[in-house]
Amino acid sequence: MNARTEPAETEAEPGTPARPSLIREFLLVAGLFLVYKLGRQLATGHTADAFRNARHVWHLERSVHLPHETAVQSALLHGDTLVHLANTYYATVHFPATLAFLVWLYLRRPAHYVWARRVLAVLTTAALVLPFTFPLAPPRMLTGTGLVDTARIYGPSVYGPPSSDHLSNQFAAMPSLHFGWALMVAIGLMAATRSRRRGLWLLHPLVTLLVIVGTANHYWLDAIVATAMLGLALAVVPPPRRTASTAGRGTGLLKPRETVLAGAGR
Fold it and tell me: Of 82, 171, 175, 202, whose CB neighbour count within 10 A is largest?
């Protein structure tokens, strides 16, 4: 009997999904971002309703004893550097972080990529309905709250005067897709990885929440509604099916390849 050992032959995992076409996915993701921009722009022209709804939201938050937005902003205003960093985070992290998330999933976790892209598409499409039915001025525009427009005073700012800003709808504060997308990035990365420290991805939506509230761009309720809508999107879109090739990825728990005795039993 030959005692020489050889690695057992391995076969391609039948459940491993194929990576989607790059050109097709580029067009889909580009379309998602375009719908996000154009959809918010189409919902302009409801200034009076937006300010009336803003006062309703502000009083509702106080009646249910939600934390006061001014407390977060006061912490940011202890120094020019901190508030400038918060404004920069708001202006520069939202889109690049989401795009980097999708690119990484596309390259490393194709099944999770398709799932995450579908969830973001459902969330974004649903979120675009609210500005038509519930236009909302952000707290930085609401007088009598004690809040200031930190981006306008300390910079950098991504918004111009609402009357001349043709790139965004500033009366579409609810829901906060800044927070909704950030939360999905964290959930998606936690689902696609197996590191014991993957819970740290939740720092991204946590920091985003403090930034959007502290800079007076969103109310607490904007983030709460975004969370609820994301929950519905996650319930509608089925999660990726785990396979043997991904179950132990990132943990070092994959079983070593078995060895067989060449010629054994002959």
Answer: 175
